Amino acid sequence: MVDSLLSARGLNKQFRSGNEPVPVLTDLSLHLERGESLALTGRSGSGKSTLLNILCGLEYPDSGRVQVLGETFDSRAPQTGNRVEARWGNLRRQQIGVVFQEANLMPALSLLDNVRLRARLAGHDDDGCQDWLERLGIGELADRFPDQVSGGQRQRAALAMVFAMKPALILADEPTGSLDRHTAEAVIGQLFDLQARHGCGLILATHDPELATRCSQHLDLGHLPEN
Q: Of residues 15 and 148, which shows the higher confidence score?
């Protein structure tokens, strides 16, 4: 078993605004062990979403290195793009659960079938998928399609998909932004309960300072320039 879950060293990322380079991440490093949680805070545009995308291979840094679950991704390594994409794809399918700000559901599948598909892709049976929808308060909507439910209900279905895959690492980008306060508190409780029971790692981007205090680590990106 790989002891270290995730580490990043010397990450740099910039975008361009017209002809001007705009730094987003500058020489950023972090380390996360199994069972630990990290809150990412900072104003909108400070790089939280960009960092999460880099840590799951959806974006690439200009320089730096990411190690996750024994896999090393170095921006300086002479690797073919297809090979790197395949390695990241395997990790996202089986080990890294990503919760986006907007629910990423298959529109042609019911909520329940979306969750079932996610579990199967991760190599698990789908016996408990209905239970996850129940626990997140949308069990009665299992047979509905994404366009037949609200944005908050879609987001809870997206969380059920991540829970059903039993990941080693969860990356959550403002996962409760579309939920009312009461529902958000219940969903966050489920998220931390899952982490405690399965010993997975959690990186959570949030604007909520109270939520950030529930994590074992805190990284404030607010000092970085806006993108």
A: 148
In whole angstroms, what is the distance from residue 158 CA to residue 164 CA?
A: 10
Spatial neighbors of 19 by CB under 8 A, at least 6 apart, are: none
CA distances from 159 to 19, 44, 62, 116, 210 (A): 39, 22, 30, 13, 21
Output the six-digit token pair for 129: 């998928």
Return phi, psi of residue 118, to 5°.
-65, -40
Contact criterion met (CB below 8 Å) for 50 and 8: no
Surface-to-core class of residue 173, CB atoms within 10 Å of its CB (0-12 exposed, 13-18 middle, 19+ buried): buried
- Helix residue ranges per DSSP H, the chain: 48-55, 81-94, 111-121, 129-135, 151-164, 181-198, 209-212
pTM of the model: 0.90
CA atoms within 13 A on the CB side of 180: 5
* pLDDT digit string, tens, across residues 54-84: 999 999 999 999 999 989 998 766 555 678 8
Pairing of strands 20-33, 4-17: antiparallel
Is residue 112 a contact partner of residue 149, using CB atoms and an 8 Å limit?
Answer: no
Q: In what order do the strands lie in the sheet with 4-17?
A: 20-33, 4-17, 63-68, 71-74
Is the separation of the CB atoms in 24 and 197 below 8 Å? Answer: no
Tell me the C-alpha distance between 69 and 56, whole Å. Answer: 11
- Distance of alpha carbon 111 from alpha carbon 158, whole angstroms: 9
Q: How far apart are CA 93 and CA 2, in angstroms?
A: 18
Task: Output the pLDDT for position 31.
Answer: 95
